[in-house]
Specification:
This protein has 242 residues and is an alpha/beta fold. The chain contains ten helices and six strands, in the order H-E-E-H-H-H-E-H-E-H-E-E-H-H-H-H.
């Protein structure tokens, strides 16, 4: 088996897990395709490792079916809806489910364009409400996960409320980012801005905005390294908006 195929197969599990599950405030995994049920601790550990699986995570459904149990892969295989993608190309923020206002989405899109231009890091946001999601079709729109592709400096945030039963922020991180923002950073970012209580008190729009601005601030810092999300809100200047 080639290194590329091995990495693609490993990465596939990350995509399936990202679309299939989220984590509730008690730390239990919630299946996005059925009613939420607690998952044994060993399964949680396995899922957490795969959530940040190495390399590219957007792969074909054909590879996906070789890695996951039949029931799970069958459910995911049908989630490939290019018709839900915007006609306009090059958007960094896609809202199948509208969590941000048009103005908020525009400002975030501009912020992420500036971040990529200045640092090379690609940060993308997909807002959805499963099962209304483009699913695997997103890989072509954002040009992620192509075989042999060397650019792994990407972060994809999938925002989904899962019926109000779990953390709304789900991150998938490429290898090219992990030395800058390791796994513990994303876990803490989820716990800071993605919990049900935070969304209830502040709104899902602020949860998304604060999470994205925190990540962008760290990637723009002199060290380009964080393990703890910033306490203070970053300035617009520090995020490259001036």
């Amino acid at each position: 088996m080639t290194t590329t195929n091995y990495r693609s197969r490993r990465a596939c599990a990350s995509l399936l897990l990202l679309l299939a599950t989220t984590m509730d405030d008690s730390g239990c995994r919630v299946n996005a395709f059925s009613s939420p049920t607690p998952v044994p601790p060993l399964a949680i550990d396995y899922q957490r490792r795969n959530l940040f699986a190495k390399s590219v995570f957007f792969v074909t459904a054909a590879i996906a079916t070789t890695l996951m149990p039949l029931s799970a892969s069958a459910r995911l295989e049908s989630v490939n809806r290019p018709d839900l993608l915007p006609k306009e190309s090059g958007l960094n923020v896609i809202q199948v489910e509208k969590f941000l206002t048009s103005g908020q989405a525009k400002r975030m899109n501009d912020l992420l364009t500036a971040l990529e231009r200045d640092t090379g890091f690609r940060l993308r946001v997909l807002c959805q409400a499963y099962p209304i999601t483009p699913g695997l079709a997103i890989r072509d729109y954002w040009d992620l996960g192509k075989e042999g592709q060397k650019d792994d400096k990407y972060i994809v945030l999938v925002v989904d409320q899962f019926g109000g039963k779990g953390n709304v922020l789900n991150f998938n991180v490429g290898d090219g980012v992990k030395l800058n923002l390791p796994n513990v950073f994303w876990t803490r970012l989820q716990g800071k801005f993605g919990t049900l209580s935070y969304v209830r008190d502040n709104g899902i729009d602020l949860a998304i905005i604060n999470a994205i601005e925190s990540a962008a601030s760290c990637l723009r810092s002199e060290e380009q390294y964080c393990v703890q999300p910033p306490d203070a809100a970053p300035s617009m200047k520090s995020l490259g908006m001036f």
